[in-house]
Specification:
The protein has about 260 residues and is α/β, with parallel strands linked by helices. It has six helices and eleven strands. It has a seven-stranded mixed beta sheet with strand order 1-3-2-6-11-9-10, sandwiched between helices. It has a two-stranded antiparallel ribbon with strand order 4-5. Strands 7-8 form a two-stranded antiparallel sheet. A hairpin with a 2-residue loop joins strand 4 and strand 5. The longest helix is centred in the middle third of the chain and has 28 residues. The N and C termini lie far apart (about 55 Å).
Length: about 260
């Protein structure tokens, strides 16, 4: 079976601040637009490969600011979701999408079973295992993590403008999401909505279910409209907002 990553490319998973003192565990599945060398360009143009179909622009930058402001741990994927979307299980077509929005992805058009397995083994399995092992170690030490997955979304989708600025997403466990929405409603700083622009029906809560719900952990998925975090200034403003939102929401639940 083809070995997807070279030794020079390193691990598909990065971990920052593993000894974090706060319970927050940030996860960024779509942190990078980098393609493994062996995958070439997947038949896509440079413009497509730099667009939101390849990654979540700004999501990692905001996450890294939250690492500092919250003293949080962070686990993220170092390669593009076009090769494997780590927020999808291996059996899902969207794990290796043949089409993303208006873009056909030639390199994903007719993937053999062996290549699907190679991508799964190279990218998804290490990411899943790193996250599971981190959570297991924290639980064993009596420290339950609070799982927060970090994403961004495009302001225009299939030609339609999106008004929502920050999405607070949840699956069956809505404890943290409900607390965050209550805090956001008091401040009214952004247009914050529940399960928008995506929700469980769109298949976007895989990480929340597998690592949050199944472990009984508080969990939430944050979606930020990417025009708000396209530069360092915007990223700092959003990180400041989310630092307060997450901190106040967790405190409210603790009380």
């Amino acid at each position: 079976m083809m070995k997807l990553l070279t030794e020079a490319e390193g691990s598909p998973v990065a971990v920052e601040n593993p000894e974090a003192l706060s319970p927050f565990l940030l996860v960024c599945e779509h942190a990078s637009r980098r393609l493994p060398e062996k995958m070439g360009t997947l038949g896509l143009s440079p413009d497509a490969l730099s667009s939101h179909i390849a990654w979540d622009p700004g999501a990692l930058a905001v996450s890294q600011l939250l690492v500092k402001s919250l003293d949080a741990a962070l686990i993220y994927q170092r390669f593009s979701r076009l090769v494997y979307d780590c927020n999808r299980p291996p059996e899902a077509e969207a794990a290796m999408p043949p089409v993303s929005e208006v873009f056909e992805i030639p390199g994903n058009a007719a993937i053999s079973a062996s290549e699907r397995q190679a991508r799964t083994d190279a990218l998804y399995v290490p990411f899943r295992d790193e996250l599971a092992d981190f959570i297991a170690a924290r639980k064993a030490s009596g420290r339950l993590p609070v799982l927060v997955t970090m994403h961004s979304f495009t302001p225009v989708y299939h030609g339609r403008q999106r008004g929502v600025e920050v999405g607070i997403l949840h699956d069956t466990d809505k404890r943290l999401a409900a607390s965050m929405l209550a805090v956001a409603e008091r401040t009214k700083r952004y247009d914050v909505r529940r399960n928008e622009p995506y929700g469980p029906a769109d298949g976007v809560t895989h990480t929340l279910i597998e690592h949050g719900v199944k472990n009984g952990l508080l969990n939430v998925m944050i979606e930020i409209r990417n025009d708000l975090i396209q530069d360092e200034a915007g990223q700092k403003v959003m990180a400041g907002y989310l630092t307060g939102l997450l901190g106040e929401s967790l405190q409210a639940l603790s009380l």
